[in-house]
Amino acid sequence: MALSIGSTVELLNGVLMPRLGLGVWRTPEGEQTEEAVTAALNAGYRSIDTASLYENEGGVGRAIRESGIAREEIFVTTKVWNNEQGYDNTLNAFRNSLERLQMDYVDLYLVHWPVAGKYLETYKAIEHLYEQGKVRAIGVSNFLIHHLEDLMGSCRIKPMVNQVEFHPLLTSKKLLMFCRKEGIQLESWRPLMQGRLDIPLIRELASKYGKTPAQIVLRWHLQQGVVTIPKSVRKERIEENADLYDFELAPEDIVRIDGLNEDRRFGADPDRVDF
């Protein structure tokens, strides 16, 4: 699979989404967020993933404006948080996100978690924003198969993206195959397992390919067609995470990494959203 940092996937509605982006979860608002986003844009990234929960949409927006790169060349994702869900609340949350970002639209707007009793109405509001042209693509985050089936039973516009925790210790094969079948793009958060990369097989493959363990894991994501958004605030690490395009994992090594699966989550269980 010939890939480059400019490689994209085509979503259900034809919008092109970069395969690699920068996540800014837990990156403090202000200088640190702006420096991380600037480093990513300078390294060739064209996708930035934030959320209202992260409280750093302002810094993301400032860095993008000051980059000198045309707004339409950068794919910006944000999300509606759990206590903002519901139809009217979501519309208000979106207005607040746009104000903080200082943007006229976002490229992708997601339901952050499947809050029981609320996510269907939340998604209806997001469909409305899409039809108004305020959002170029819409989707969900942390939805399991049964959440997606429930949503698709009532929605007018199929979710284009499902952003979930996904990594070698949580390969979620059934969810991955379901999303592929439905044309929903799977996107991975926490792809590097919070830095838990000291795994013998990953170290072995890093030596084999002359790459870092992080690069092996990120390339594994890309070769499965999964969009990924590794988070870092260090310029050298941001650049390292993008140096994925001068090698390709052999099919048998993809299978070996798949075999590391433990169904292990480092984040919350989507069936237990009580926050």
CATH class: Alpha Beta
Oligomer state equals single chain
CATH topology: TIM Barrel
Q: What is the radius of gyration?
A: 18 Å
Instruction: Please give the domain count.
Output: 1
Structural class: alpha/beta
Rounded mean pLDDT is: 97
Continuous helix count: 10
The name of the CATH superfamily reads NADP-dependent oxidoreductase domain
Protein name: Aldo/keto reductase
Family: Belongs to the aldo/keto reductase family.
GO molecular function, one term: oxidoreductase activity, acting on the CH-OH group of donors, NAD or NADP as acceptor
InterPro entries: AKR (IPR020471), AKR5G (IPR044500), Aldo/ket_reductase_CS (IPR018170), NAD(P)_OxRdtase_dom_sf (IPR036812), NADP_OxRdtase_dom (IPR023210)
Give an account of the 3D structure.
- Keywords: NADP, Oxidoreductase.
- Belongs to the aldo/keto reductase family.
- The record marks 79 as: Lowers pKa of active site Tyr.
- One of its GO terms (molecular function) is oxidoreductase activity, acting on the CH-OH group of donors, NAD or NADP as acceptor.
- The chain is α/β, with parallel strands linked by helices.
- The protein has 10 helices and 10 strands.
- It has one domain (8-196, 226-236): NADP-dependent oxidoreductase domain (TIM Barrel, Alpha-Beta Barrel), CATH 3.20.20.
- It has helices spanning 31-42, 57-66, 87-101, 119-131, 145-152, 173-182, 200-209, 213-223, 235-241, 251-258; strands at residues 8-10, 16-18, 22-23, 47-49, 75-80, 106-111, 135-141, 161-165, 185-189, 227-228.
- Helix 1 (31-42) packs across helix 2, helix 2 packs across helix 3 (87-101) and helix 3 crosses helix 4.
- It is globular, with a radius of gyration of 18 Å.
- The N and C termini lie far apart (40 Å).
- The mean pLDDT is 97.
